[in-house]
Amino acid sequence: MTDGPTSTARRESLATLLGGRRGALDASLPPVGFVAGWLAADSIAWGAAAALVVGLAIGSLRVARGGRPRAVLVSLGTVAVAALLALYTGRPEDFFLPQLLSNVASALAWAVSIVIRWPLLGVVVGLVLGQRTRWRADPDLLRAYSRASWVWVFGQYVLRVAVFGVLWAAGDVVALSAARIVLSWPLVLATLVVSGWVLYRCLPGDHPGLRHPRDPAGTVARAEGDSEAGSGPEPKRE
């Protein structure tokens, strides 16, 4: 006797749904170029130029392979901001300051989303699966997404803030570059695996899975019905 499609849906991993390894790996290469250029020439300007060249090469490769130009431009813009900041302050460790601040902002955003019952993990997965916000009508999914989102808060963003913050304060540029690699796609993959385990662990055994949110109160169906009724022709008045 087979498990059937419902059991298969329950076991679908977040890593499969969300991916992210390629993007995280790409993001870790420009900082390596910055440190290499800075060490080779003992110049922040050379480091900044090397980071931009690496970022441009990666972006060109991604576009050639069918990547979205907008995403490539955003990535290049991030590298440019980091390079300009380091040039402005004259401190090579400040190249990593935007990364530190972005992780502070991400940790706060994810924590707030859980508190207000809009866990960002659910928002992201819901968009990927084309569910919009239907998952919020399922109390089991809402609770599971909330608990799994805490893994992202502490297991990824707070951890990065702690490591990057200490190394940035110490001005250890080489260690910052190494940490950027270690805390990029390996950490993203680990977070996906652990948060996925927590997510499925929190769901009841008879739950149909992420792709099939329950709606015990029928709120979604009623809302859709009211919308369709409201869009129909107005009744004739006698």
UniProtKB/TrEMBL annotation:
Keywords: Membrane, Transmembrane, Transmembrane helix. The keyword Ubl conjugation does not apply. Residues 211-238 are annotated as: Disordered. It holds the Pfam family DUF3159. The chain crosses the membrane at residues 35-59, 71-88, 108-129, 150-170, 182-203. The keyword Transmembrane helix applies. This is DUF3159 domain-containing protein.
